[in-house]
Design goal:
This protein is α/β, with parallel strands linked by helices. Helices cover 23% and strands 22% of the residues. It is built from 14 helices and 23 strands. The termini are far apart.
Length: 510
C-alpha cells in the first residue's frame, strides 16, 4: 500500500512538472509562465450576486433599472494612459428591473464575466515627497472637515503639513484682534488624531493676533521656512480644499525645476476675467510651490512685505512680495486647477485629462452638493492614476472612471471631438475687447459646445463609492426622465492579485 501511494504521488508530481514545462515552451510573447499557470489561490468572482442589500441605505425609489460588472485591473508593461482607450465590446449586460421594497434578495438574469482593463504598470508606484512642506491657514472646524480629503493624498508620502489654525474670524469690526484663537487643548487633540491617522501635521497659532486672513496665509512662509529640513526643496501654500489627485505625478512634475534656483510655480485662474483683474499670479487654491531658493528671499523680506501690502488676498500678498524683491515670474502649470468656473463641471471632469490638483470641490455643481473627491478618488487605490481616465465601449458609451458613464444616442461617440473639453459650466464674465471669447481658452481650451442632456447625452453620475473587501464599488445613477425608472449601474473594481480572470481579456485599443 505504501508503494502504491508513493507511485501515485510521483505520478502527480511528474504531471505537474509536465504542465509547467509545456507552459514555458508555448507561452505568449513577453508573458511569464505565471500568466499561463492557473492560480490555485484565486478567488471566484460571482458575476450574479443574489443580495443587493448594500443598495438599501441609498434611499432609492423602486423599482429601478440595474446592471453591474466586475472589473479586474491589469498593470501592464508598455501601456500608457491615453485620452481615450477603446473597447469593441459593451461594458454592461442588458438592464434589469429590480425592486427591493420588500426583499433585498434578487435573481439577476443578465450577467457578464469580469472585464480586464489594462493600466500603466507604474500606476500604483510609491512616492517620496519628503522634500515638500505644505502649509494651510484655516479654522479648526474646517481642518477637521478636511481630514477625509487629506487622507487621500498626504499619508505615506513623508511630506509635512503645517497648519495655522484659529477658532473663527467672526469678531467685531472695532476689535483689535482679528480672530478668536483656537483652544489649545482642541488643537492638541486634533493634531494627535490626525497624526494617528498617518498625517504628518503640526498645528500652530497665528504669528500675531492682529493678522487678517491674508496676513495669516502669507505668514505660512516663515512658519514653513523655520521648520525646513536639510532635504526640503519646496514649500507649498494650499487651501484646506486643495486636492492633489496623484502625488507621484506632482513630484515628477516638480522634478523638472531646479529648487536651487528661484521658482514660483502655480496656475492662473481658469477664468480670464480673474486673470485680467488680478494679474499673472499663482492662484492659491490650485497650490503654490516656492523653491527653497526663492523661499529664502521671501522669508528674509517677510516683515517688509507684510507691512507694505494692503491686499485682502493671501496669494496676492505672496505675488507682490516676489515681484517687489525678485525678478522671478510665474511658471504656469495647466494641470493645477483653481476652479473659478461654476455650476456643472462635467466638461472638466470628463475631459480625460489627469489634473494635478482640484479646488472648490466641496460646494457647487448642478445640485449644489459639490464633488466629493475623497470618495470619487477611492478607485485610485486599485488602479493608481486611472482616476478620471476614459474608456470607450462600443460606439456610444464613455466611462470616465470615478465621475460618470455617458451614452450618446445621436451619432455615438464618433461625432464628438474628444480632444476638446465640453463647455458644461456657466459662461465666465466677459472681458471687453478680449479675444479670449470663451473666457477659458488660456486654461481649458480647446473647448466644444455643451450637449443637450437627455437628447444628445445621457449621463449616469457617480452617486457613491465604497471599499468592499479590498475592492472598490462604484455606483452610478441617473434619474428617470418622463416617468421612467431611475437607473443604477454598479462597477466593482478589483485587484488581480486577489482575483484572477478565468477568461481572456477583451481586446482593447491603445
Amino acid at each position: 500500500m505504501l508503494l502504491r501511494a508513493a507511485v501515485t504521488a510521483l505520478t502527480c508530481l511528474l504531471s505537474l512538472t509536465s504542465v509547467i514545462f509545456v507552459a514555458h515552451l508555448y507561452r505568449r510573447d513577453n508573458a511569464s509562465s505565471s500568466e499561463w499557470i492557473p492560480s490555485f489561490s484565486a478567488k471566484h468572482i460571482e458575476p450574479c450576486p443574489d443580495n443587493l442589500d448594500w443598495l438599501l441605505p441609498l434611499d432609492l425609489t423602486y423599482p429601478i433599472k440595474y446592471a453591474r460588472r466586475d472589473i479586474l485591473v491589469n498593470p501592464a508593461t508598455g501601456v500608457e494612459r491615453l485620452p481615450v482607450t477603446k473597447h469593441d465590446g459593451t461594458l454592461f449586460p442588458d438592464f434589469q428591473s429590480v425592486d427591493l421594497t420588500d426583499n433585498a434578495k434578487v435573481q439577476l438574469k443578465n450577467c457578464r464575466d469580469p472585464l480586464t482593463l489594462d493600466v500603466p504598470e507604474a500606476a500604483k508606484r510609491p512616492v517620496d515627497a519628503s522634500h515638500i512642506i505644505f502649509g494651510i491657514s484655516t479654522t479648526l472646524t474646517r481642518l477637521d472637515e478636511s481630514i477625509p480629503s487629506l487622507l487621500r493624498w498626504l499619508p505615506n508620502t513623508q511630506a509635512q503639513l503645517f497648519v495655522i489654525a484659529i477658532e473663527d474670524d467672526d469678531v467685531p469690526e472695532d476689535s483689535e484682534d482679528r480672530f478668536h484663537p483656537a483652544d489649545s487643548k482642541a488643537m492638541s487633540d486634533l493634531q494627535s488624531r490626525m497624526r494617528n491617522l498617518g498625517l504628518d501635521v503640526t498645528i500652530v497659532n497665528p504669528l500675531s493676533t492682529h493678522h487678517w486672513f491674508s496676513q495669516r496665509y502669507f505668514s505660512l512662509v516663515p512658519v514653513m521656512w523655520e521648520n525646513r529640513q536639510p532635504t526640503t526643496k519646496w514649500i507649498s501654500l494650499i487651501d484646506d480644499d486643495t486636492f492633489f489627485l496623484s502625488m507621484p505625478s506632482l513630484v515628477e512634475r516638480l522634478s523638472d525645476f531646479d529648487p536651487n534656483k528661484q521658482y514660483y510655480v502655480g496656475a492662473l485662474s481658469e477664468d480670464w476675467w480673474s486673470v485680467s483683474r488680478y494679474g499673472l499670479m499663482a492662484f492659491g487654491g490650485a497650490g503654490i510651490f516656492v523653491s527653497i531658493a526663492l523661499a529664502e528671499i521671501v522669508n528674509a523680506k517677510y516683515k517688509d512685505c507684510q507691512e507694505r501690502s494692503h491686499t485682502s488676498a493671501g496669494d496676492i500678498r505672496l505675488r507682490e512680495c516676489i515681484s517687489w524683491h525678485t525678478s522671478t515670474k510665474l511658471t504656469n502649470i495647466l494641470e493645477l486647477h483653481q476652479i473659478d468656473i461654476h455650476n456643472d463641471l462635467s466638461g472638466l471632469y470628463e475631459s480625460g485629462r489627469l489634473p494635478l490638483s482640484l479646488h472648490h470641490w466641496k460646494g457647487g455643481g448642478p445640485d449644489g452638493k459639490g464633488y466629493p473627491l475623497h470618495t470619487m478618488h477611492l478607485v485610485a487605490d486599485i488602479c493608481g492614476d486611472c482616476f478620471l481616465q476614459r474608456w470607450q465601449f462600443g460606439s456610444d458609451m464613455l466611462l470616465v472612471n470615478g465621475f460618470s458613464i455617458a451614452t450618446y444616442p445621436k451619432g455615438g461617440v464618433k461625432r464628438l471631438d474628444l480632444a476638446k473639453m465640453e463647455e458644461t459650466w456657466d459662461h465666465p464674465s466677459i472681458v471687453e475687447g478680449s479675444v479670449n471669447v470663451n473666457g477659458v481658452d488660456h486654461s481649458l481650451g480647446p473647448t466644444r459646445p455643451k450637449l443637450d442632456l437627455e437628447q444628445e447625452k445621457i449621463q449616469y453620475r457617480l452617486l457613491d463609492s465604497t471599499t468592499v473587501d479590498g475592492a472598490v464599488r462604484q455606483i452610478y445613477f441617473r434619474k428617470g426622465a418622463d416617468g421612467d425608472q431611475d437607473t443604477v449601474l454598479e462597477l466593482m473594481w478589483r485587484n488581480p492579485v486577489e482575483h484572477e480572470p478565468e477568461h481572456e481579456p477583451e481586446p482593447q485599443e491603445h
